[in-house]
Design brief:
Elements (H helix, E strand, L loop, with lengths): L13 E7 L2 E9 L5 H11 L7 E9 L8 H6 L10 E4 L3 H9 L8 E2 L2 H13 L2 E7 L5 H16 L6 H18 L5 E7 L2 E8 L19 H8 L2 E7 L2 E8 L6
Parallel strand pairs: 2-3, 3-4, 4-5
Antiparallel strand pairs: 1-2, 6-7, 7-8, 8-10, 9-10
Helix pairs in contact: 5-6, 6-7
Protein name: STAS domain-containing protein
InterPro entries: Anti-sigma-factor_SerPK, HATPase_C_sf, STAS_dom, STAS_dom_sf
Pfam families: STAS
Length: 256
């Protein structure tokens, strides 16, 4: 009988860091896989710690096995420790890869450019925009439902976005309900308003990903995430070092 084979060790990534125009530039080479994705996520997160002008991640030399794998970059954006006010942008010389990044939804939060020059110019523009942010850690009990709705209403009203309140309340209620039903976590609520859109994000400590269930063959699909899908521009779930973050983007066209 042959000896059992040892589990393959994670493939190392080469991540080089330099500074340019007060921004941190990370250049990543290697093959992205499940074993080293955390290394990339943590490197991007740490690059925001000193609050640089921005973080530019050059992924031109990164080999990604499948289009969905690009979404690991979003986990750095939604890490609890990441400085949300520090813009993160991507550089990728390969046009097909840039298109894949865009299709994956990553570019919604991390714009992608073909050159460092374009990315640094974008960082300058992004740091000048006015983004409103609110964050709160809530208890792992039913009072979080009422408190999250109260906070979302107060924040959006104070930021002159009352038209987004009705849909935002539905979305945050679904997300908090899911955390309370499926985890033992204290949910962390984050709300960001950037121009006409708002992003609602809920983080928890469970690694189980939020997945929309298949629609029933007959009748109306009234599952929580089906409602979020119908009411938002986009939504998703990304793993983080402490669990996961579920997010949704809503705009003025999203109405009840």
């Amino acid at each position: 009988m042959s000896a059992p084979q040892a589990a393959a060790s994670p493939t190392p990534l080469n991540i080089a860091q330099r500074s340019e125009q007060s921004a941190v530039i990370l250049t990543v080479d290697g093959v992205l896989d499940a074993g080293n994705s955390g290394e990339l996520r943590d490197s991007i997160t740490k690059a925001t710690f000193d609050e640089p002008f921005g973080v530019v991640v050059d992924v031109s030399g990164l080999e990604v096995p499948g289009e969905d794998a690009w979404s690991i970059l979003l986990s750095a954006r939604w890490q609890f420790e990441t400085r949300p006010e520090v813009p993160i942008v991507l550089v990728c010389e390969n046009r097909a890869a840039r298109e894949a990044i865009t299709r994956s939804g990553v570019a919604r939060f991390m714009p992608v450019f073909p050159t460092d020059k374009g990315a640094l110019k974008a960082v300058t523009k992004l740091t000048r925009r006015k983004v409103h942010r609110g964050e709160a850690k809530l208890p792992a009990n039913l009072t979080s439902l009422r408190e999250s709705r109260k906070l979302v209403r107060e924040w959006l009203t104070s930021w002159s976005k009352p038209g987004l309140v009705p849909v935002a309340l539905v979305v945050v209620n679904v997300f908090i309900e899911n955390v309370l039903e499926h985890t033992n976590s204290d949910p962390v609520l984050r709300l960001e308003v950037d121009g006409p859109t708002a992003t609602i994000a809920i983080s928890d400590t469970s690694s189980a990903q939020a997945v929309r269930l298949a629609s029933p063959p007959k009748g109306i699909d009234v599952s929580g995430l089906a409602i979020v899908d119908a009411l938002s521009r986009a939504w998703g779930c990304v793993p983080t070092s402490s669990g996961k973050t579920v997010w949704a983007i809503i705009g003025p066209e999203n109405q009840l």
